[in-house]
Structure formats: C-alpha cells, structure tokens
Amino acid sequence: MPVPQLGPDPRLFPDPRGADEDGLVAWGGDLRPERLLAAYSLGIFPWPHEGMPLLWFSPEPRMVLPLRPIGVGGDGDGEAGPRISRRLARTLRQGHFEVRLDEDFDAVIAACASTPRPHEAGTWITEEMQTAYGRLHRLGFAHCAGAWRDGRLVGGIYGVSIGGTFCGESMFHRERDASKVALVTLAQHLASAGLDLFDAQLPTEHLASLGFREWSRDRYLDVLATSVARPTLRGPWSLGSTFSVAEEA
Fold first, then answer.
1. Measured between alpha carbons, how far is residue 105 from residues 46, 99, 130, 234 in Å?
2. What is the pLDDT of residue 241?
3. E strands in the chain
4. pLDDT greater than 90 at residue 120
5. Element (H, E) at 178
6. C-beta separation of 14 from 44 below 8 A
7. Residues near 224 by beta carbon (within 8 Å), at least 6 away in sequence
8. What is the pTM of this model?
C-alpha cells in the first residue's frame, strides 16, 4: 500500500495506526511549528533520511517512561519515574554536573547533531531540523536539559512538550553519565510538574536501563490522546527545587 504524501494543511496527518512495518506514516510536508505540533499530538515525528523527502514515523513498539501510574493495560502500571542505579545515584549526590533547563538550547541541539555515535554515520538532525526546533523553543514548546561542568556543556537532551507528554528527540554526552544525569533530572522535573509521559520514541538498552519500557503503538496512542488534551507547560523552564534520589534495591 503506497505511503501517503502530506498535503498543504499542516494539521492533517494520516492515522498513525496505519503506519507500515517500519513505522512510516507519511512523506513530504515541511517543519513549520503548526505541522510539528500536530504531528506530536498524534504520536508522529519527523525523521529525515539523506536523499529522500521528509519522512514521518510512528514506530511499533514505542519506548516510554510513565511519570505517574497510567493504568491502561500491560505490566508495571504501578511503576513510574526513572530507574536510578546505585552508581548513578552516587554521581547525582556528588554533584559532578550542574543541570540547567532551557539554557543555550541551540548549543544542546547542535551538540546532539555533531556528537559521533557508534554504528552511525552522519546525523538526521539537519540544519533545517535545528532551525525548526529552535523556532519551537522560542515559542515555548521545545525544551532542553544540559549537564554543565566547569562552565562547559558536557551532556544534554532536547525534545518537545505538548499537553502532559514530553517527547525526547536526542541526547549526547562528552563525559560519562552526563546525559544520564540530564535525563533523570529532566524526568523528575516533568513528574513534579504533573506530566504523564516521557516518550523516547525508539527502544534501546540504554533507555531500558533507566526505566523506559516498550509499549505497543496502540497503547501509546490511547494514552497520548488523553495526555495531549491537557494544558501545555510552555517555557522557559527552570529547576525550582532539589529532587531526592531513589536508588535501585
């Protein structure tokens, strides 16, 4: 079945439940804020591929971190928030990194684009993507958490907040555990602000070690539909309190 092309109306997307086996929903369109926000509200995100038109995905399964007990089927509904190992808890307590929210968003996304990754060549975070998400940041929908040490940005993560869901896009580290500290601190901030979900899109062992779990696309979309109907906590964000650290048993 052919993958549909997006039309001129930035709010209109095909039903993501009809995505192909790779999670591809549609192609074409642009990265205007209206289209990006419409996509995220439906569980869809852009994923550029070199030499191809702009592609839009909704993968199966989905990697998510519930920030509060959700209770929509599946295992582990009573668990919420990040999983913190003893070693990571020690790093957090020792304060090796200072985490700042929404400081130098452009530097965080540029670092995500330029940091080499194992088994990957190049980056999907094109200059066009950086410009588009920078625009969303200035509108109060895109946010970042950066880990700083001795005045240097050494790790971080950025993503899009819509309703009660934060959709993580990418993260990087230049020092061990820097991105983990940024992610965990951000997740705790989101939970304290009353958000429902931290969406990380694609499954990885790294995310699983931090408490993210695989949900079916249908389950994710069911929860997302309720979550995005909540008011969006628009930026700029800041850390207003010190969070306690819960270790693994």
1. 19, 13, 10, 15
2. 42
3. 24-27, 45-46, 55-57, 62-66, 98-101, 142-149, 152-162, 165-173, 197-201, 213-215
4. no
5. helix 178-192
6. no
7. 41, 42, 43, 165, 197, 199
8. 0.91
CA distance 181 to 12: 37
177: nearest Cα among 245, 113, 109, 87: 87
The domains found in the chain, sorted by start residue, are 16-57 (3.30.70.3550), 62-227 (3.40.630.70)
3-class DSSP string for 182-219:
HHHHHHHHHHHCCCCEEEEECCCHHHHHCCCEEECHHH
Provide the residue type at 39 as one letter.
A
Residue type, 64: V
Distance, in Å, from the CA atom of 67 to the CA atom of 142, rounded to the nearest integer, reads 19
Closest of 66, 84, 79 to residue 184, by C-alpha: 84
Instruction: Find out whether 158 and 109 touch, Cβ atoms under 8 Å.
Output: yes
